[in-house]
Every structure is written in C-alpha cells, then in structure tokens.
Amino acid sequence: MKRSVKTALTGMVTLAASAALLFAASHSLIRNASRQNRTPLSDGSTAETSEEWFTDAVSDEDFDFGENKDWLDLNDLEYLLTDRLKCYLFIGTDHSGNDKAKDETYQGSMADFLLVAILNKTDGTYGFLQLNRDTITDVQILDKNGEITGNSDEQICTAHWYGGSRQQSCLNTVDAVSELLGGLPIDGYYSVGMDKIAQLNHIIGGATVTIEDDFSAVDPSLVVGETITLNDEQAYNYLHARMGVGDGENESRMRRQRTYMEAVYHKVIDRVRAEKNFLDDITETLGESVTTNMDGDDFGQIRNVVRGGTDLGILIPEGKSTLGTHLDDDLEHTEFYMNKASLAEIMVRLCDLQLDGFTDWNDLETETEVW
C-alpha cells in the first residue's frame, strides 16, 4: 500500500527536514575499520595539513547530479522531464564519524535522514521524497583526497561516510541520491548533524505527539499511549533514537519522523509565510554546524514556492527490508530494497513526468504491464 504523508519540510525532522523549509534563509557505525580506505588513521595522530589539502579535491563540477538531463530512467522506462524543477537534498547525519576534523583524520558520518525537496515551478507545486537510509543502491567510494576509487552496492547512508571533508561527503551523497532517482538533477544540498534537533524543536515551539513505541530504555519520560508536547531533549530522542526503541527498525523511526513533521508542519508554514526573517533566524542558530552549497537564491525559491504553491506532501517509496552482508564486514545489517514501480509513481507525481504521450498513472500502469 502506497504510503504518503502530507507535511513538508518542517523541523528538519531529524533535522534534515527542517532544513528544507526552515532553513531556507540566505544562502554503531554501519561499518568498522575492516574495509580498506574507509577508516581514520589508526595511530590517532593528527597529521599537519595545509588549507590547500582541505579544500575539496572534488568540486561540484566533478559530479553529474543529472545536470542538463531531460529524461529520467525509472523502472526500466524513460520519462521526459518537461517541467521547470528545482530539487534540493536535505541531510541529517549521525555521529558515527569524525566530521569536524579538517585534516587527514576526517571521517564522514552516516546520513541518517535523507529528504529530497522537489519544487515544480511550471505547475506551482512542491513535495518531498523521504528515502530510507538503508536503501541498497550504487555508491561511489571516495578516498581521503576525494578521488573516486570504485563503486559498491550498499546502504545509501554510507555515501556520506566517504571523502576527505564534509563537502565531499555531501557531494557523494547527492550523487548517490541522483542516480537512485533515475538521474534527477539536484540543485543543492543542506546537511546538519542530528544533535541540532533540540535547537530546531526549541525554535519551532515543540510538537505534540502520541507516543506509540516503547522508549523506556532510552527516555522513560516518553510513555507509550501518552500525548505530550516534546521538550527539546525529548524531541531528540523521539526523532533520533532507533536501537532500544520499540522494534528497533528504521521504518519505525521514519514513522516517528513523519508524525513529528505532521505535528509541526502548519506551525512552520504559517511562520514562513508571516515572518520574513524566520528562516534566517534558523540558519543563524545552526551556525557552522551546517554544510551547504545553497545560496540566497536557492532559499528564496524554496520560500516563494512554499508561500504560494500547492503542497503534495512527503512521499515514501514502498520496499522490503531484510538482513544482508553488502558491507563485507562479516556482520549482518539492515538492507532496504526499494520497489522501483513505487518510486516511479511518486516521481511522476512530483515531477509531472511524461511517458509515451500520457501522464495519467492509471494508464501508465496498464502500459507498464505490457512491458
């Protein structure tokens, strides 16, 4: 059954979501040290490096991101891109790496939250695609200099693990997401650590939710069955915690993230429409914890479309989760296999894609059966 939730980027839920619209202002490790070229220096040293080394060896121009592409490959079919789109990726990272380092000890963290904002300037709509962090897809392997050393089918969250700086990790994540979405052009990224959820919750004014999972091992104040307005610490636990909560599955955490977004959505939208500086205040609060290549024009476009456009909600592709060993670390990890037809249906809706002269999804399903 197709799952879609009417919200929109709001409290960067898990802090990437609120990045989308809130942030529009101005401008256990999945793996261990067992895989070559994927770990920090083992001797704990902090090698002296120049600022020249830390500047990205890989720039935006080195990644495709579907640039200048007028079609998408989805579900073994080619869809025409005819509408004027602006697409942005919002990333919420965990603390599995050492991403504050500015030398060879840098290690990217996992991308816990991935939200693609799709603004359709042709028909005046906007919507969001939330991706499961455990989705198995093609990921580029970057070394510490940002050089591409190979590719591997693994969880999409690992794309942010690679590279020699936060910028390179973000660019690699954008590349993985773009390819997963059939080559969708992505115009910018905005990444924030999950530890900023509390600050975002405070700015938004909290969210009222009903607790559906057992948090007793993580936060006893979150009692199953009770409806409460989350304080800042509770919001962090509610959105970020997975192991030790309920069934421990990422799908359950994504459900909580959607619940939170629904709770704060209208509150955020109203403030974006009414307070000119609301988004700037959020960006100022987050400060240097943000990594982005977006500028004032990008944020302005998000703000303008949200103020006057039609909201298509946050959509989530169907799929199945299982345990697997794609990471080659002799351990089993959760792997999510996305349903290609479900993804294609969502992309048709968000991007108003066209295939062989028809755009109605019911007709498209009939045509797909022939294939």
Largest sheet: 7 strands, mixed
**Portion in strands:** 15-25%
Helix coverage percent? 25-40%
The CATH topology, please?
Aminopeptidase
Distance between the termini: 22 Å
Which sequence of SSEs, written as H and E, runs from N to C?
A: EHHEEEEEEEHEHEEHHHEHEEEHH
CATH superfamily: LCP protein
The tally of helices reads 10
> What is the CATH level 1 assignment?
Alpha Beta
Shape assignment = globular
- Average pLDDT reading: 78
Structural class: alpha+beta
In quaternary terms, these chains amount to single chain
How many structurally independent domains?
Answer: 1
Task: Describe the model.
It is a single chain. A hairpin with a 2-residue loop joins strand 2 and strand 3. The protein is globular, with a radius of gyration of 20 Å. Helix 1 runs parallel beside helix 6 and helix 4 crosses helix 5. The chain has 10 helices and 15 strands. A 7-stranded mixed β-sheet has the order 1-13-6-5-4-9-12, with helices on both faces. It has a two-stranded antiparallel ribbon with strand order 2-3. The longest helix is centred in the last third of the chain and has 25 residues. 31% of the residues lie in helices and 23% in strands. With 371 residues, it is an alpha+beta fold. It has one domain: LCP protein (Aminopeptidase, 3-Layer(aba) Sandwich), CATH 3.40.630.190.
